[in-house]
């Protein structure tokens, strides 16, 4: 059975969702953020020295890093279900979005979060955040205009990985208008496995608290 080390209100929600999509047996170990700082509790360092979530344990394997976990789970337990065949152009697109999610899109998300928290003191950081966020979201909006998912019309594990930065960015700036992204997120959130992962009630998933009032 796969053990998922999951932090409330965080990107590790995707791993619980993916386990549901794959129908693989799993057990969630919940770690709750410190109420004051919002940071991960020390219990996460018992499983990996960085003390971040997600981390999974599968037999002797301890694997951190969302992208690595998603690729590993899809490849090991997907029976070709959530990933296009290797060596095809669709697989290259799949890899692109898979890496883009954490490698590129989380940067404007985190810049926005911290610049907002710093207020006027953010200076250049704030200016950068306010330019990079629309740059990325505008790009994605355009990509999704004529496609149901990131790899054409087929739902893949790359969509699971892309969900969190998009949900996070939309919750940080709900006033911006991105109809294709919002329709896409609604499509993901309507999936029975997405709902089931929320319903298991393992930990809250509410990103609205990150928005600066
Ligand atoms: N790129 C890493 C980032 C891991 C990460 O920063 N996770 C956040 C959860 S959203 C965390 O554990 N934050 C708590 C902290 O830094 O104390 C991944 O995708 O796994």
Label this structure with key terms:
single chain, 213 residues, alpha+beta, Glutaredoxin, Glutathione S-transferase Yfyf (Class Pi), Chain A, domain 2, 2 domains, four-stranded mixed beta sheet, 7 helices, 51% helix, binds glutathione
Describe the structure.
The chain is an alpha+beta fold and 213 residues long. The protein folds into 2 domains: 2-82 and 194-210, Glutaredoxin; 89-191, Up-down Bundle (Glutathione S-transferase Yfyf (Class Pi), Chain A, domain 2), CATH 1.20.1050. The protein has helices at residues 13-22, 66-77, 89-118, 124-144, 157-172, 179-189, 192-199, and strands at 2-7, 26-31, 55-58, 61-64. It has a 4-stranded mixed beta sheet, covered by helices on one side. It is globular, with a radius of gyration of 17 Å. The protein binds glutathione. Residues 7, 10-11, 39-40, 52-54, 64-66, 102 line the site of glutathione.
Topology readout:
Blueprint: E1 2-7, H1 13-22, E2 26-31, E3 55-58, E4 61-64, H2 66-77, H3 89-118, H4 124-144, H5 157-172, H6 179-189, H7 192-199
Helix pairs in contact: 1-2, 1-5, 1-7, 2-5, 3-4, 3-5, 4-6, 5-6
The site of glutathione has 12 residues, from loops.
Secondary structural class: alpha+beta
Largest sheet: 4 strands, mixed
Radius of gyration of CA atoms, rounded to a whole number: 17 Å
- Fraction of residues in β-strands: 5-15%
Helix content: 40-55%
Report the average pLDDT across residues. 94
Largest sheet, order of strands side by side?
2-1-3-4
Assign the CATH architecture of the largest domain: Up-down Bundle
Ligands (ions, cofactors included): glutathione
**Any idea of the CATH topology of the largest domain?**
Glutathione S-transferase Yfyf (Class Pi), Chain A, domain 2
Structural shape: globular
